[in-house]
Amino acid sequence: xKRRAWLPAAISLAVFILLEIASLHILSRNADLQRVWIxxxxxxxxxxxxxxxxxxxxxxxxxxxxxxxxxxNFLLQKELGEARERLHxxxxxxxxxxxxxxxxxxxxxVVKISRKKQHNYLILNRGxxxxxxxxxxxxxxxxxxxxxxAVSAHHSFAFSFQNNDIxxxxxxxxxxxxxxxxxxxxxxxxxxxxxxPLQYKFSPGDTVYTSGHSLIFPPDIPLGTVGAAKIINGATxxxxxxxxxxxxxxxxxxxxxxxxFDEIEETDL
Amino acid sequence: MRSSEFWLVYMLLLLAQLLxxxxxxxxxxxxxxxxxVMVLCIPIRVGSVGAMLIAFATGLxxxxxxxxxxxxxxxxxxxxxxxxxxxxxxxxxxxxxxRNEDFSATKSGIGKVALALFIVQAVFTLxxxxxxxxxxxxxxxxxxxxxxxxxxxxxxxxxxxxALAPDTRR
Lengths: 269, 170
Known about the structure:
The structure holds two protein chains of two kinds.
Chain A (H helix, E strand, L loop, with lengths): L5 H25 L1 H28 L2 H28 L13 E11 L5 E6 L12 E4 L2 E9 L4 E8 L4 E5 L5 E6 L6 E8 L9 E4 L11 E11 L3 E8 L8 E7 L2 H8 L1
Antiparallel strand pairs in A: 1-2, 1-12, 2-5, 3-4, 3-12, 4-5, 6-7, 6-9, 7-8, 8-11, 9-10, 10-11
Helix pairs in contact in A: 1-2
Chain B lengths: L2 H21 L11 H6 L6 H19 L6 H21 L2 H5 L5 H4 L1 H24 L5 H26 L6
Helix pairs in contact in B: 3-4, 4-7, 7-8
């Protein structure tokens, strides 16, 4: 019988990989620094793998995508023209638009998204070579989507808002109370706004916005509308929020980064 | 060298490594380890997979019993065991495997033993320093630590070779 010379080498390689994975697993569970380091490495690999497969898929859908983007571009240009016209008519051409001031915006496409876990994530097709930085926000016209955690050259790994570890500082209306908004853990478009003091009045259908209290997201991004509420421990309201952005339909996003993030973080020390 | 003698020496050197790790910590720039030479000298008949399992267990034991991060020595030592056979084949030739014979400084020459030792010590130190730094330490720190640790570990390991791989010729 012909001897399979490659078999011992293959077994040896398999055992080597298994033992190294076991070592990395043990290491990540026992040291915070190494856990972050290993997670970043793994996220980078995931980004590269999913980015490559997405590139192939994209190649076959370029024509329809270009048509869609052209249509979106046309609508945006039209809206911009109308907005400029309204500003001109109101005589406030030189007024500075404050929403988003101090933030850099980079458009990106979601190449992979997980929605079925309690710790969901997104991988975007833009990396540090495109200007993406860690601790940037990920938003859509429908609200907040996630926070960038790790960045490789051409891809970014972001924790999705549909993640038990993520909370966003949100405001009831434009001038109402501020509280943490977290995913409800079950639905693709539902969240819970917590710690709203009882003296603040609100009605179903009121809009919830980003508060601007965090360094990651600009203020006044509409997130969703108020639904049912319940009183917790007789002290605060917990309000159900129906998000404008349904996570099942996310594809194009914007990555926002606070230009003064590092400076404020250093000051905060 | 009989198998039982080798494993007795192996256990004694393991004890010595624990003492080195716990009491001979002079500076953050220096990490003393004789684990690579211990793995390099595991008898050839043990095979690659066996050597890797022994290296993994040895690394975990050292991590557990010394002031280190659990998994770090195992992570750095398994590649040494995986590369052990190719390094021996490269430096000493394939005859050792054909004869199922272990190397020794007298039989193979101190130069060849030193070369093999340098390669495995460098692999181990590189992975250890890289993983321990976890990309938060500056390059110059890691480079200095790698250089000093490699030099010190190499000298210590050379001293351990006669005990682990004695000349068995009559």
